[in-house]
Amino acid sequence: MTNISFYVLKGDTEYDRQVFACRLASKAYHQGKHIYIHTQDAEQAEQFNQLLWSFRADSFIPHQLVDTNNESPVLIGHDASPPRLMDLLINLSTEQPLFFSQFDRVAECINDNDEIKAAGRQRYQFYQQRGYQLSSHKL
After folding, report:
1. What is the pTM of this model?
2. Residue 131: which CATH number?
3. Number of separate domains in the chain
4. How many helices and strands, by DSSP H and E, does the chain display?
5. What domain range includes position 129?
6. Which of 82, 112, 125, 129 satisfies CB 3.0 to 4.6 Å to 12 for a cystine?
7. What is the distance between the terminal CA atoms of the chain, rounded to a whole angstrom?
8. Residue-level pLDDT at 118
């Protein structure tokens, strides 16, 4: 069954939330995991794509936006399920994706933004009502 972790961050900026997701993706990538980052829309996907190149000067994470090739260990998408099975889903969307249960792990990134918190609570209840193993980490 999928393990779901909620990471509760201080601050309310989208940038900080995305930087944390970059750090999480970097750690998982270096552990040999295949990662799918699910974003709210195409604009957020492109922002995240650019941030993965620049969030840390000494880091390299091979990644790409979902397209026809999709061979990178880290894929970024927003409007469809990943094209292949992957290990970790990092969800930056305000809703849980319908395909979340195909992953071993799901990471939900929450911050102090009222909209993000409210949507996170709804996702937490959704997962909890369905019996998924949940953990919460305040950072």
Report:
1. 0.95
2. 3.40.50.10110
3. 1
4. 3, 7
5. 3-138
6. 112
7. 25
8. 96
